[in-house]
Design goal:
Length: 179
């Protein structure tokens, strides 16, 4: 069981309190709580590739929406399984990310997680329904060359990891470039 009690969050990025007035929000904008996991094995990070010809092609750590009263950690584990076929055990909360498109605003909670079993596969309905065409383990050098979300994976993640993720970090608010 992961407890968020006493967690201190250090804001980073450009959209934190005091950075100016918030952008106008359409009255019909919905909100979604999401969770995801950073899973490493043999020095490689698990990512899934979302691909729709002519629309988008990017990699992301597995994750997605929380269902009902599901805990954030349980949602992260379920999403990893749905998108990759792997069973994981979330360990600790490391980042909080906010992003939006014209219709939806997301708040995503990113955990580190330990691989417990399963076979890597994107044949599950949860993967195919989201246009996930590949799941793979990537080195730090490989991640640096990919179109990847969250962008922290191309830099600070590795520094934070080396420091033992001393505190939860807020990654700020960003506009989605694809949806």
């Amino acid at each position: 069981m992961i407890s968020l009690e006493g967690v201190k969050v250090t804001p980073i990025g450009s959209s934190v309190p005091g950075d100016g007035p918030p952008a106008p929000v359409p009255p019909e904008m919905a909100h979604r709580i999401s969770a995801g996991a950073f899973v490493e094995h043999d020095g490689r990070l698990l990512l899934v590739r979302h691909f729709r010809p002519g629309r988008y092609d990017f990699w992301v750590a597995p994750g997605g929406g929380v269902i009902g009263t599901e805990s954030l950690a349980a949602a992260a584990a379920r999403e990893v399984h749905e998108e990759t076929g792997l069973a994981v055990e979330p360990d600790r909360l490391v980042y909080v990310e906010e992003f939006h498109n014209p219709h939806m605003r997301y708040c995503k909670f990113w955990f580190t997680a330990r691989w417990c079993g399963g076979t890597l596969s994107v044949d599950q309905p949860g993967a195919t329904g989201e246009h996930i065409v590949e799941a793979a383990w990537h080195t730090r050098a490989e991640v640096a060359r990919l179109a990847v979300f969250p962008s922290v994976l191309q830099g600070d993640y590795w520094t934070d990891r080396a420091a033992g993720f001393p505190q939860v970090r807020h990654l700020g608010l960003r506009a989605m470039s694809v949806w």
